[in-house]
Amino acid sequence: MTTFPGIATKTSGGGAGSKISRGAWSWALFEWARNPWVLLGTIYVFAPYVSNVVIGDPIHGQTLISGWHKTAGIIIAITAPFLGAATDRMGRRKPLLALFTAVLAITIGVQWWALPGDSGLPIWALGLAVTLSGIFFVYTEVLHNSMLTRAAPPQLLSQVSGWGLALGNAGSLLLLVFVLVTMALPGQIDLPGLPDAPMFGLDPAKFEPSRIVTLLCAIWLIVFAIPIFLYTPDLVTTGEKFGDAMRHGVGNVFRTISKLKNYRNVALFLIARMLYADGKTAILIFSGIYAAGTMSWGLIEMLAYGIILTIFAVPGGIMSGWLDHRIGPKRAVILEIGVTFICLVAMVSMTSTSILFFIPVDPAATISSSPLFNTLPEVAYMGFAIVIAMSITAAYASSRALMARLAPEGMEGEVFGLYALAGSATAWLGPMLVEFFTDAYQSQRAGFGSIAILLIVGFILLLFVKPPPPLHRDDIA
Hints:
Strand order of the largest sheet: 1-2
Structural class: mainly alpha
Number of strands: 4
CATH topology: Growth Hormone, Chain: A
Number of domains: 1
Strand content: under 5%
CATH superfamily: MFS general substrate transporter like domains
Order of helices and strands: EEHHHHHHHHHHHHHHEEHHHHHH
Radius of gyration: 22 Å
Distance between the termini: 5 Å
Shape: globular
Helix content: over 70%
CATH class: Mainly Alpha
């Protein structure tokens, strides 16, 4: 039986199998540490606050924030593949992962000082912090992804990858509920057991319940990143210094790219993933900003929205592993992209005064006595958003597992560097589309809807990717 470092194996019933080891769980737990910033920071709480309050204009805010993400995407596209190649030459990933995690925590934490007017960070400084946090978030992703094949054997890649995203959403859910119950609702709604004022003496007049997510996510990241450094297997160091590895890595990347002519199937998948993943990332970045601006949702509504979607996103990550085994990883990704596209179009069709683009709705008419989401457009938007949350989470997990199955042996680090490039080389394109269409039409709907272009092109290209061969007993024995 082939064994893997840090992987516990067992044999039962005459067959071979594996259980998820402590090292694999620690790898997955890093998503629990890192992902809350995506949900609380860039989607549901902080980015809408920046757009609607700090900048003070949803349309201008969406334009500025998309520009910051566009800049981060360009820098990531230029540097991420070289980072992967350099770590391949150095062997060990953990020292750089620790450094980048620390920098990410700092760039997240300083955004606490984002305030309207001139009382906090100037807009250029806030933009710099948002840009840097986006860059170092992807840097940690490159290193984390390249450790997956060391953390889990082939037959567990889908499950461990899916559990990672599920844990990331579960951690985000806990923080969303915590902020809602202890900081957003107190003083706003009178409920049994609810405090009379926000925890820690936070002042709603200074928007502290919205800003506090920056400090919470920074601390959460540092604390729960610790297990991956203690338990997940790392490669043995080669002794090559980072500067030398980066210099040599430049040549390695170009050689890897040239090698892709011999791995055309991998190249085609990377191009397809480059487009559809950027579309999915753009949906995550701008769905909260779009909902807050179009539906006029405040902190409480955005927290409730985030909680509901995150609850449904958790099984999305687990479902990806089941889909991979039932219909194959390629078909799973195709299905997940198709569902995402349909839901995006449906979400764009909703405003506070209309549904399905053309059907008018009285914004004052309610369909329930619920204090939140009680109009028809809000309920319809929420329904499609729930499905898209599941499909996006599943697609991320399925794509990562598919890449691990397609990667040539011995090229995992380089290929996952290119995989990060495929998810970020056009990361400037999604925000650029949103920026251009929002500004050109002075419409959040036009900007948000333009993301569909990336999903369509990526979907078409993915149809021509040859799926990896199915795993047989010899592959896992």
